[in-house]
UniProtKB/TrEMBL annotation:
It comes from the Bacteria. CDD domains: OAT_like (cd00610). Gene3D superfamilies: Aspartate Aminotransferase, domain 1 (3.90.1150.10), Type I PLP-dependent aspartate aminotransferase-like (Major domain) (3.40.640.10). This is Aspartate aminotransferase family protein. GO terms for molecular function: transaminase activity. The keyword Transferase applies. Its cofactor is pyridoxal 5'-phosphate. Belongs to the class-III pyridoxal-phosphate-dependent aminotransferase family. InterPro entries: Aminotrans_3, Aminotrans_3_PPA_site, PyrdxlP-dep_Trfase, PyrdxlP-dep_Trfase_major, PyrdxlP-dep_Trfase_small. Keywords: Aminotransferase, Pyridoxal phosphate, Transferase. The keyword Transferase applies.
Length: 439
């Protein structure tokens, strides 16, 4: 019997129907088992069907599932905000809940803008971002996104925003460990601020450890600190989009914690709700929020934001990460997986780069390592290899590396509970898929 589907997302291609998921594994309705090798889209950080989280959600459901924020505070909301404030840099005490990553980024832009207006800096409205980057699908977040296939259909953007290149040292033949490299890319930001006119620039937004668009790009030495200094020098707010890199996946709660750099505003989501609830947060420094609250309040909000069920899930996720030592495991298993991916470079000349931190890892395919030219576009390696892995029962996530139109990188980001034995299993499937691809 064929049944017509009324569902649609990005494309009309159909995937198997999900039956159940536990730990790092998922099963379709035909009983085929998959390793969730990208945690969905780097979401299911603590694995599927975690008993503590399910229990916390069940208990919350018995009490209440919704209380509108203008009518009630909720206990899970208060507790989760306090917990998050304790995990973020000093002074970043204000937590604004939302239901996803794009909403977190929108909230960050709007808070920055309302703050500037409140303190009399009305001329500052431009938000500089990087190419490639992904900051979300809503129009504000999309205007900051530097990823051609996603922005092109909507151009001219309602509000185009200035962009600078992401620090892709591996493509420019520069040494990632040399602080001169970090400075080289950070100076691009300073030049852009000056070119735009510093008193028109509101903020700079970037992903501390890159996500889907760059494929787990790790910034070169000195970059994070230099960017902070440049923003300070020009009165530009610094926003960290930690929607993917936050929540513990890199081995620290925030990706930026690896460099000890504090921004003014942080956006988190994905691993924060970890697939149990649509949840995100915008976390801001008191210094920004107080004047806005004093001058009549933040003129922004989403109806479902901070609902008690989502907050109870988020709280249990954070407790489980702590209780299970999952950030430590993300470091341990991440180091092992990265070294195993590096080993693949001996076997396949077309793997050009392996990068990332903790369990936010990626590898990139190239024609040859000398030139780092991408594989021919027509090979469609980004979708080809994903399908071959899928046949093996391994789910990985791919994107086109260069301007979104060619080049192929693959995110290998299993949940933070992945063991050494499960990495062996994953690598066996990945190697089988790569062998087929190499044929
Ligand atoms: N920022 C980053 C860095 C992301 O990776 C994503 C999602 N891929 C978003 C923002 C948008 O999040 P959402 O899809 O939950 O709206």
């Amino acid at each position: 019997m064929t049944t017509k589907s009324h569902l649609f997302y990005q494309t009309d291609s159909r995937r198997p129907v999900l039956a159940e998921a536990r730990g790092i594994y998922m099963w379709d309705v035909d009983g085929k088992r998959y390793i969730d090798g990208s945690s969905g889209a780097m979401v299911s950080n603590i694995g599927h069907s975690n008993p503590r989280v399910l229990d916390a959600m069940r208990r919350q459901m018995e009490k209440s599932t919704f209380g509108y924020r203008l009518h009630f505070e909720t206990e899970p909301g208060e507790k989760l905000a306090a917990k998050v404030a304790g995990l973020t840099p000093e002074g970043m005490e204000k937590v604004f809940f939302v239901s996803g990553g794009s909403e977190a980024v929108e909230s960050a832009i709007k808070l920055a803008r309302q703050y500037a207006v409140t303190v009399g800096q009305n001329s500052r409205w431009k938000v500089i971002s990087r190419t490639p980057s992904y900051h979300g699908s809503t129009l504000g977040a999309l205007a900051l996104t530097g990823y051609n296939p996603l922005t092109r259909p909507f151009e001219p953007m309602m509000q185009p925003m200035p962009k600078i290149p992401a620090p892709r040292a591996y493509l420019d033949g520069l040494d990632i460990d040399d602080p001169a490299t970090g400075n080289h890319y950070a100076e691009m930001l300073e030049r852009k601020i000056i070119e735009e006119g510093p008193d028109t620039v509101l903020a700079f937004i970037h992903e501390p450890v890159g996500g889907a668009s760059t494929g787990a790009l790790v910034p070169p030495a000195g970059y994070m600190q230099a960017v902070r200094e440049i923003c300070d020098r020009h009165g530009v707010l610094l926003i960290h989009d930690e929607v993917m890199s936050g929540g513990g996946r890199t081995g620290r709660f925030l990706g930026a914690d690896h460099w000890g750099v504090a921004p003014d505003i942080i956006a988190i989501s994905k691993g924060f709700g970890a697939g149990y609830a649509p949840l995100g947060a915008m976390i801001a420094h008191d210094r920004l929020v107080e004047p806005v609250l004093q001058s009549g309040g933040f003129m922004h909000g989403h109806t479902y934001a901070g609902n008690p069920l989502a907050c109870a899930a988020g709280l249990a996720v954070l407790e489980e990460i702590e209780a299970g030592g999952m950030m430590e495991n993300a470091t341990r298993s991440g180091d092992l997986l990265k070294s195993r991916l590096n080993d693949l470079m001996q076997r396949y000349a077309f793997i050009g780069d392996v990068r990332g931190r903790g369990l936010l890892l990626a590898f990139e395919l190239v024609s040859d390592r000398q030139s780092m030219r991408p594989l021919p576009k027509e090979l469609n390696a980004h979708s080809e290899l994903v399908e071959l892995a899928y046949e093996q029962g391994l789910i990985i996530y791919s994107r086109r590396t260069r301007d979104g139109v060619e080049g192929d990188h693959f995110l290998v980001c299993p949940p933070m509970i992945t063991t050494a034995a499960q990495i062996d299993e994953l690598m066996e499937m990945l190697t089988a898929a790569l062998d087929r691809f190499a044929e």
